[in-house]
Structure formats: C-alpha cells, structure tokens
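Bumping with the actual sequence this time:
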Amino acid sequence: MTHNPYKGKVELLGGPSGTWLFKAHEVWIDGKAYEHREFAFKGALEREAIIYARLGDHARITKCFGLREFAPGSQSLQLERASVGCARQYTTDHADKPPALHLRLRMAVDFAEGVEYLHEKGVTWCDLSARNALLFDNFRVKLCDFGGAVMTGSDFEEIQSYESRYETPLRGREWSDVPPLTQELYALGSAVYEITEWKIPYGDVPEEEIDAHIGDGNLPVLTEQNSAASIIAKCWREEYHSASAVVRDLQICFEESQPRIPLP
C-alpha cells in the first residue's frame, strides 16, 4: 500500500466536479490506493447504501447516489459533498468564533428535523452525533454516516455505537433495559448541546474518564444564555417521547430568537 500523505486528514474524497465524494474501504487519490479504512463490521458500506435508499431525498439528509465501483474491485458510496465540512470539525476549528445563537438554534432545528425524518422512515441511527453531521452554506445541516443504523423490516443486527460522550446514563438500569428511542433522544439532547453551546459534551475530559462522569450523574454544564437549555435538559431527563416533540420546541425557541433581518 502506498504511503498516504493525507493519513489522519482525509476521510472522504471529492469527485471530479467537486460536488460529490466517495466513501470507500480504501482512500483513493489520483487512481492510487493510499489507506485501507476499517469499517465497524463487514458489510457496513452495503448496509449504509440500503438505508440511504430507504431514506430517499430529504433536505436534512446528505444525498446519496448509490454504490459505485470507484476502482477495480473497490466499491464506494457516492455522496453529496458538504461545502463547509463536518459540523464537529468546524466547531472545533472555530471554537472562539461561534455564529450568533439564532444561527446555532437553526442548526439544531435542522439536526433534529433530520433525526425526526429518520425515525419516520423506521431508521434508528445508533451513532447520533454532531460528528456525523455536515455543514453546508449558510450553516445548514445535513445528517450522514448510517453504516451502523438499524431499520424496521430488515435483519440488520442491532449495534449500539454511540460515542461515549453521547451515551445515556444507566441510572440503575442494565444497558439492555434502556429503550433504543430513549438512547436516541438522549443523544439528540447532546447534539443540540454541542451545536448551541458550541463545544463537545464534557469538553476536555479524557475519553477514559467519561464513563465515570456519566455514572456519577455529572452532566455537561448548560450556560444561562443558551435559550435551548431547557430542551436539552428535558432530553437528558428522558422526558421526550419523540424527535418530533424536540423539533417542535426547538422551532419555537428558534422563532423567538430570530433577528428582524431575515436569515439567508
């Protein structure tokens, strides 16, 4: 395998027109394979293609053009390219320069609307996170990366793959006793937190210490100026029973925050 000069920097490659990219088991640059990318399990790419096919076209879901043979013997998903990039990466790179709160609230609405649509289509994301959201022009958000998702009517194995910072506290329960929807809505609260607070849940706490923080009941701190704080807290208290209810409350919060000049 050729040395990859972009190792750690390249996740997905753009097509010739710059309007799409290819997600594959290998990173290809100018017709050469540079790096093999291990997926969580065999068949993840094919599984993701099936899920994208069910989702179809939606304003809050990254467009997928299906599986393509990007190179001989190497299949890839052809996906829409985000004009800005990964939401989490953008947040990290611009930690000291967050957009205005009303823009962050609209991002949160976009994200929640995407989750609402997934659930309407019988898809449970299982890896709900701002790291799997893409930013487009004017801070519009689309969701992506459904390789570990499950959907009704399929025989897909249930694989729980939430990142530790988004995991639901057990609160005296066994993990198997926490309903998938409960986990999804708790994680949705964490995504809204990351977007509106403009920082990753638990901040600089090392990964190996996250479980202890969650187990002790220590939740990320919500600031007083965050008008979505009560919505986030309600997600974390497991008081929501649908993503639609979260969307409704976020939409109200966003509308109350809008400036007099219409947003682009």
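The tokens above came from a reply further down the thread. DSSP finds seven helices and eleven strands in the chain.
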